[in-house]
Amino acid sequence: MDVGMKAIQYVEKGRPELIDLPQPEPGEGQILLKVEGVATCPHWDMHIMDGVSMVPGGKVEYPYMPGQPGHEAMGSVVEVGPGVEEFAVGDRAALWQDQVGATQGCYAEYVAADTGNLLAIPDSLAPEEIASLELAMCVQVSFDQIANIRDIEGSRFGVSGLGPAGLVAIQLAKAYGAAEVVAFDPVESRRGLAQMLGANRSLDPTQNGAFSSDRFSPEALDLAIDCTGLPVSVEYLMERTRDVVVLFGVLREDARFGFKHWCRALHLVGYGSHNKAAAEKALAQIVAGKLKLAPLITKTLPLERYADGVELLRQQKAVKVCFTP
């Protein structure tokens, strides 16, 4: 007899529904994960709710793949497929990368996951503390890009955009030895959270004179990361940074890089590639207590309140929401 489960599916634009599905069976090299916590990826969730692709120029088709776009997830192994040796029933694991939209996503009670997309996690970590490992991996990729150019230790480090990625970036900058972290965001509540998570200063970039635009000033940033994907934010950092500005946010419009940036050898660095080594580094920081993901979770809700959670994101009443299927 088939065993059923609940999952979220976007049946059309703006209409996610809780549906019944057969419980998946793990295939070769897969495990069946009982999802204990799955966190929103705010821009992705809001884009799919609005019928807009996360990829510039892309197209969203409905009904959307069940369980998608849920991908920041953790849980317990309840079944192992053929050929699996690295996991056993009862182990706890978290996804370190998205399994792509062609497969069922993690807004569901169960998901079949390739073992290559998983990392084993300590039993001591609550869902809110580890579900967003995938996000931490993504931000770590950008830090690896910086480290390819110069050391982070001892630097004055800027972070623009204090959504989930920016709040992770603040903590990683501190973990890797930045002497000072300066955070930028127009939303006051997020500036407060940034300081709670280690920012030395948190400023409103829309206020004139909030931070000197003189790159030769002793106050200038050495390194910076943009977590907004907005040209105005990227250009704000380029004006105030000596060495490296790394772009984490997805750019949908061109940012202007001109002579005044070129003549001082400013490095403008795009995103790298998802990789397991970055996930392992991020997990090590989480286990060491230097990267805390739980403060990013404003609210924990049951899966049937998924639409309510997305609305909290839209109204900026939540940084992230964690669902417990």
Main sheet: strands, sense, barrel: 7 strands, mixed
CATH architecture of the largest domain: Alpha-Beta Complex
Q: Indicate the mean pLDDT.
A: 94
Strand content: 25-35%
Classified by CATH, the class of the largest domain is Alpha Beta
Helix fraction?
A: 25-40%
Rg, Å, rounded: 20 Å
Order of helices and strands: EEEHEEEEHHEHEHEEHEHEHEHE
Which stretches are low in confidence, meaning pLDDT under 50 for 5 or more residues running? Answer: none
Q: Specify the CATH homologous superfamily of the largest domain.
A: Medium-chain alcohol dehydrogenases, catalytic domain
Structural class: alpha/beta
Tell me the CATH topology of the largest domain. Answer: Quinone Oxidoreductase, Chain A, domain 1
β-strand number: 15
Sum up the overall morphology in one term.
globular
Task: Offer a concise description of the structure.
The protein is an alpha/beta fold. The protein is built from nine helices and 15 strands.
List keywords for this structure.
alpha/beta, 325 residues, seven-stranded mixed β-sheet, 2 domains, single chain, six-stranded parallel β-sheet, globular, Quinone Oxidoreductase, Chain A, domain 1
What does this structure look like?
This protein has helices spanning 42-50, 127-130, 133-147, 164-175, 188-196, 231-240, 259-262, 276-287, 306-314; strands spanning 4-12, 15-22, 30-39, 72-80, 92-95, 110-114, 118-120, 156-160, 180-184, 201-203, 221-226, 241-247, 267-269, 297-302, 320-324. The two termini are 22 Å apart. The protein has two domains: 4-132 and 293-324, Quinone Oxidoreductase, Chain A, domain 1 (Alpha-Beta Complex); 135-269, Rossmann fold. Helices cover 26% and strands 27% of the residues. The chain has 325 residues and is an alpha/beta fold.
